[in-house]
Amino acid sequence: MTKETGTVAAIDHVGQAAIDLRHRPRRTRSTPALRAMVRETHLHVEKLIYPLFLVEGTKVRNPISAMPGIYQLSTDMALAEVDALSREGIQSIILFGISPQKDSLASGAWDENGIVQRTTREIKKRFSQIVVVADTCLCEYMDHGHCGVIEQERILNDPSLELLAKAAVSQAAAGADIIAPSDMMDGRVAAIRAALDGAGFSQVPILAYSAKFASAFFGPFREAAESAPKFGDRSTYQIDPANGREALKEILLDISEGADMVMVKPSLPYLDIIARAREITNLPIAAYNVSGEYSMIKAAAANGWIDERRTVLETLTGIVRAGADLVITYHARDVARWLR
Predict the structure, then answer these.
(1) Are residues 250 and 228 in contact, defined by beta-carbon separation less than 8 angstroms?
(2) Backbone angles phi, psi at 11, to 5 degrees
(3) Contact 210, 236 (CB under 8 A)
(4) Which of 120, 185, 268, 335 is in the most buried spot, having the most CB atoms within 10 Å?
C-alpha cells in the first residue's frame, strides 16, 4: 500500500490478511491544538506542594549538596521563599524542622516554640492564603534519628504515639492547615485524630503517609533533614518495597482511623500502588516525588543527558495519570514557571 485511503488496505501477498485502517489514532495527534484538545491528564500548579527545610538562626540559606537548588532556611529566609512561591502561583508548602537540640523524647517536635511552630505562625500572619502542611514525625528531633521511642535499639510503637499526638496538636495550635504524620507507627492516625479533636482542632485534616516504603530514594533527604538513623534502618516500620498488598492494607487502615487524605511515598517506583489506591478510595491521594527522584533528574540534566523541562513534566504527569490528586515535589517552582 502506498496511499492512505482511510478504508481497508488490501495486501496482495498470499496468506496475509487485510489491514483495517478505518481506525487511525494518529488523526488526533497531527497538530499541537488537536493534541491539547484530547489530552487526558493535566498538571495544575495548585495541586503541587513545595517542601521547605527549616533551621534556627537568621539569614541562613544553606545549600543541600545532594539536592541542587534546595536549601535549609531560617524563618526569615523561609518567609522570603514563601513570598516568591505565592507570586509564582504555588499555594501549598510542607514544612520539615531541623532541631539543633535532639533528645530521646523528640521534645523539639512538640515544643510550642519549635522551629516548625514558630515559622508556621509567621507564615500564617503574612500569607494566610498559603496552605501549610506540617510534617509530623520525630526523627529530626531524636538523638538516635529514628521515628519513634527506642529501647535497646528497638523502636517502640505505642509509646511513640503519645509524642506524635503532642507534636500534631502543637502544630495545629501554631496554625498548620494540615497534619501529615510520616512516621509509620501503627495506630498513629487514630491517636492523632483523637488528640486533635480533644484539643479543639477537629477541623484540621490529616494527610497520612500511608504507604511509605523503606526506600533507597530517600538518600538526599537524609542530608537535607539531618535525620539519618544512628543505628540500623527503618525497615521495621516502613513498608518492604516488594509488598503491594501490604501497602493497600496500610492505606485502608489509615482511612478507617480517620485519615482525610492518604499518601504514597516515593512515587515513581510505586505508580502501581498509586493506581491501585485510586481504585479502593475516593479520598484525595498525594504522592511524594522524593529527593532521590529529584536529584537523579538534576544530575542527568546537569550532564546534558536529558532535557530537564520535558523530563520533569513527563514525570509529574505520569504521577498524576496514575491517580495522584496532589504531588509533593521539589520541582514545583520550576513547574510553576514552565506552565505559565
Answers:
(1) no
(2) -115, 120
(3) no
(4) 120
Compute how many other C-beta atoms are within 10 angstroms of the C-beta atom of residue 87.
9
**Cα–Cα distance measured from residue 310 to residue 303, given in angstroms and rounded to the nearest whole number:** 15
Q: Is 142 helix (H, G, I), strand (E, B) or coil?
A: strand
Buried b (16+ CB within 10 A) or exposed e, 199-214: bebeebbbbbbbbbbb
Q: What residues are annotated to the active site?
A: 212, 265
Q: Are 104 and 159 in contact (CB under 8 A)?
A: no
Mean pLDDT of 221-250: 83
What residue type is 145 in one-letter code? G
In a domain, 7, yes or no: no
The CATH number of residue 107's host domain is 3.20.20.70
**Residue 18, Cβ density class (10 Å: 0-12 exposed, 13-18 middle, ≥19 buried):** exposed
Q: How far is CA 279 from CA 21, 32, 248, 276, 326, in A?
A: 34, 32, 10, 5, 16
Residue 113: what are its φ and ψ, rounded to 5°?
-105, 20
Distance CA 138, CA 156 (A): 13
In a domain, 37, yes or no: no
Phi, psi of 41 (to 5 degrees): -120, 135
- Say which residues have a Cβ less than 8 Å from residue 281's Cβ, sequence separation at least 6: 251, 252, 255, 262
* Number of separate domains in the chain: 1
227: which DSSP letter? Answer: -
Domain membership flag for residue 185: yes
Angle (CA) 138 139 145, round 5°:
140
Nearest of 75, 79, 138 to residue 105 by alpha carbon: 138
Give pLDDT, residue 233.
76
Say how many Å lie between the first and final Cα of the chain, rounded: 45
Q: Is there a domain that residue 14 lies in?
A: no
Instruction: Report the 10 Å Cβ neighbour count for 32.
Output: 8
Give me the pLDDT at residue 7, please.
Answer: 47
Q: Which domain holds residue 65?
A: 43-338
pTM assigned to the model: 0.92
CB 114 within 8 A of CB 137: no
Collapse the DSSP code of 37 into the 3-class scheme (helix H, G, I; strand E, B; otherwise coil) and give the result.
Answer: helix
